């Protein structure tokens, strides 16, 4: 059986003349591009992942057409890689991503072309797959507990083992030891998909989601084909499309870039959308796949910094596209959704290009499941199973897009992630506990933090088990969405912070009320950061504006103590990968800052964020309320009025609501109450 094709090659040959004609044209165009490339005889000073994908594209094209030019070109690509002494450059040579991408592509090529190769060619390719397969397999076995083979929640585990699994199934009839690889890898993926979050979220962000998802899907398909184990029935694979869809920006071209996302155009995979559509009869996935293929493919290709990118996936698009699945736009889907593992809440105003999109997150580092399960594994086996270098200091952080503009942003791919470059609060300039641990030395082993042996910056490496953020409450209904994240345990312990709760209330009126509760045993300067692409300017006292293209964000600020406003610019540079050390990314952050003028132990920030079109005017006025322990805002629009009140002592009564609550919202039109909500954290939660 030819891998991924099963016994349907004849059917595929018919389909490329009809239902899959456009996907076949895309494959031919990709192969035309390969014909124009010059491959280096010597291993180039960079990653060689692209050679594996090129080999697979060319091999499939020959298989479908029988045309010798594709056969000869496929062999050129295949044997260029075969002739390299090693697979990889500088970092984990032979035992990481360059090697596994080549095992994947050349494994597929061997499965598809071995009957057409002459005996010498077949032997050379087989022996190279065996050699490289043993190298990466032995490395994973010998370094269990301290490398990617037990980094169960990280993309290197999935890619490396999927690449090796593909090669193993391709050569298993001729190399019996491949069965050892297969057994180990099948157990790995069974465990991985048992402990991956059922909600389908990915702590490494949308960029690494797209970088790894096709390897996940390939492994699941091969394991089902050969072992009869259906990993497509696991919660992660069933639900991961929804994570990706809701972390796609309103323009459907860009992503919401929490964690290490190379740029805002590095997260689409047409092949993955097709496969998920086919497996789950998901018409929304089919729609998104076709949207990207027909509208956004080439822009993603030339602007994305994620290598080798979307274009080499042409062969998977052709194989996995199921023309029987209809397309359905997401217009009828809910506008809010919550992923409990990442503590990720998404609020949209609609599905059109100018819609508001707000994302907020708070969880244990790397997600709640990973944090809990990895601590168990580490204690039981004396392992290190968390590789969180792609996870950012972004607890209680938010991203806001509206009117086709980025208004509150993430810094994107950045290994030395810190609180101060996110939309967070710092305490006397201090952020995450891990930032200080890294700077001062490990809590457990100072030798590990010698300046010459730190390796890749990992702010999470030695934070204690109880250093977590969490979602205290999420609800959406009756015209309100409310989420609160609490993160005090993740702050430097010297701050003696006892509460840092960010509350987000959306009453479906076009703005967000963000109120931060800060409590400490000592007095501090609390600095409120919000990152944007443009500087904020003060238009009235405590009223601010950030204009960015077609969108504007008005910020109406208040606090329980006097605060000062300022801005600053931060320029960040980051190497994309050790294998491409000259590929440096730059991002400029223009930060909006609020800071209490006198140190206090407890305080509350209330900021109303109101995105609007740059071609319109402010649509609300905000009056501040501060009476003893009671703070809040009165928001007045053209045909509505919302009163929001928050009680610092937890007891609040309002004439329109006959119950006590920590905060209340009352919305009126023409003097009549049209909706209301109150929050009772120790009783019923949010009541309407």
Descriptive keywords:
688 residues; alpha+beta; eight-stranded antiparallel beta sheet; six-stranded antiparallel beta sheet; 15 helices; elongated
**Helical coverage, percent range:** 25-40%
Low-confidence stretches: 441-454
Approximate shape: elongated
> How much is the average pLDDT?
93
Structural class: alpha+beta
Radius of gyration: 27 Å
Number of helical segments with 4 or more residues: 15
Ends distance: 59 Å
**Strand arrangement in the largest pleated sheet:** 7-8-9-10-17-14-13-12
Question: Which helices and strands appear, and what pairs or packs with what?
Answer:
Blueprint: H1 9-15, H2 21-35, H3 49-65, H4 68-82, H5 97-113, H6 119-142, H7 155-171, H8 178-195, H9 206-227, H10 235-246, H11 270-280, H12 283-303, H13 314-320, E1 336-339, E2 344-348, E3 357-361, H14 368-381, E4 397-402, E5 405-408, E6 425-427, H15 433-440, E7 470-477, E8 480-486, E9 497-506, E10 512-520, E11 526-532, E12 537-540, E13 543-548, E14 551-559, E15 563-575, E16 584-596, E17 603-613, E18 621-627, E19 630-636, E20 641-647, E21 663-669, E22 672-680, E23 685-687
Antiparallel strand pairs: 1-2, 2-3, 3-4, 4-5, 6-11, 7-8, 8-9, 9-10, 10-17, 11-16, 12-13, 13-14, 14-17, 15-16, 18-19, 19-20, 20-21, 21-22, 22-23
Helix pairs in contact: 2-3, 2-13, 3-4, 3-5, 5-6, 5-7, 6-7, 7-8, 7-9, 11-12, 11-13
């Amino acid at each position: 059986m030819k891998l991924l094709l099963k016994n349907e090659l004849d059917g595929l040959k018919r389909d490329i003349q009809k239902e899959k004609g456009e996907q076949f044209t895309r494959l031919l165009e990709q192969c035309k591009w390969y014909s124009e490339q010059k491959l280096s005889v010597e291993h180039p000073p960079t990653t060689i992942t692209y050679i594996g994908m090129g080999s697979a594209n060319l091999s499939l094209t020959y298989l479908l057409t029988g045309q010798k030019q594709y056969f000869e070109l496929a062999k050129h690509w295949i044997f260029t890689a075969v002739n390299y002494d090693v697979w990889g450059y500088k970092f984990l040579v032979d035992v990481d991503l360059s090697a596994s991408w080549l095992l994947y592509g050349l494994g597929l090529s061997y499965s598809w072309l071995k009957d057409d190769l002459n005996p010498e060619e077949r032997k050379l390719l087989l022996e190279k797959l065996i050699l490289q397969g043993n190298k990466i397999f032995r490395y994973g076995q010998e370094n269990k507990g301290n490398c990617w083979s037990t980094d169960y929640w990280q993309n290197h585990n999935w890619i490396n083992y999927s690449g090796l699994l593909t090669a193993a199934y391709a050569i298993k009839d001729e190399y019996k030891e491949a069965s050892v690889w297969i057994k180990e890898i099948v157990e790995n993926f069974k465990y991985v998909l048992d402990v991956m979050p059922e909600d389908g979220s990915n702590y490494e962000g949308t960029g690494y989601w797209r970088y790894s998802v096709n390897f996940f899907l390939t492994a699941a398909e091969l394991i089902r084909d050969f072992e009869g184990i259906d990993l497509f029935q696991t919660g992660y694979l069933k639900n991961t499309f929804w994570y990706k869809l809701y972390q796609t920006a309103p323009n459907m071209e860009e992503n919401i870039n929490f964690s290490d996302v190379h740029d805002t155009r590095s997260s689409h995979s047409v092949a993955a959308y097709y496969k998920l559509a086919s497996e789950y009869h998901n018409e929304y996935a089919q729609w998104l796949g076709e949207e990207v293929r027909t509208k956004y493919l080439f822009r993603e290709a030339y602007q994305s910094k994620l290598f080798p990118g979307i274009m080499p996936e042409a062969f998977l698009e052709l194989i996995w596209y199921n023309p029987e699945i209809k397309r359905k736009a997401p217009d009828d889907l809910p506008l809010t959704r919550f992923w409990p593992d990442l503590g990720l809440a998404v609020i949209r105003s609609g599905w059109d290009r100018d819609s508001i999109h707000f994302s907020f997150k708070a969880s244990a580092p790397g997600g709640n499941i990973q944090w809990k399960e990895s601590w168990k594994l580490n204690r039981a086996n004396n392992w290190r199973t968390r590789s969180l270098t792609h996870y950012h200091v972004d607890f209680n952080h938010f991203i806001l897009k509206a009117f086709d503009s980025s208004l509150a942003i993430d810094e994107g791919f950045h290994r030395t992630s810190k609180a101060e470059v996110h939309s967070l609060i710092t305490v006397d300039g201090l952020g995450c506990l891990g930032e200080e641990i890294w700077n001062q030395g490990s809590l457990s082993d100072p030798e590990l933090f010698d300046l010459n042996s730190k390796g890749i910056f990992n702010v999470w490496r030695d934070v204690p088990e109880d250093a977590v953020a969490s979602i205290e409450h999420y609800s959406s209904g009756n015209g309100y969405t409310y989420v609160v994240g609490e993160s005090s345990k993740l702050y430097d312990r010297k701050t003696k912070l006892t509460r840092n709760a960010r509350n987000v209330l959306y009453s479906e009126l076009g703005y967000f009320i963000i109120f931060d509760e800060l409590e400490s045993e000592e007095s501090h300067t609390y600095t409120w950061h919000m990152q944007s692409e443009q500087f904020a300017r003060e238009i009235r006292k405590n009223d601010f504006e950030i204009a960015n293209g077609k969108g504007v964000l008005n910020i109406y600020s208040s606090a329980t103590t006097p605060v000062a406003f300022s801005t600053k610019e931060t320029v960040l540079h980051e190497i994309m990968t050790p294998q491409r050390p000259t590929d440096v990314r730059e991002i400029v952050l223009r930060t909006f800052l609020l800071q209490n003028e006198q140190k206090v132990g407890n305080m509350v920030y209330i900021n109303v964020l109101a995105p609007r079109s740059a071609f319109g005017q402010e649509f609300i006025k905000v009056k501040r309320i501060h009476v003893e322990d009671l703070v809040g805002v009165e928001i007045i629009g053209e045909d509505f009025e919302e009163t929001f009140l928050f009680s610092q002592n937890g007891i609040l009564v309002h004439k329109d609501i006959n119950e006590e609550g920590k905060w209340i919202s009352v919305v009126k039109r023409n003097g009549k109450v049209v909706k209301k909500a109150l929050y009772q954290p120790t009783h019923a939660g949010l009541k309407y």
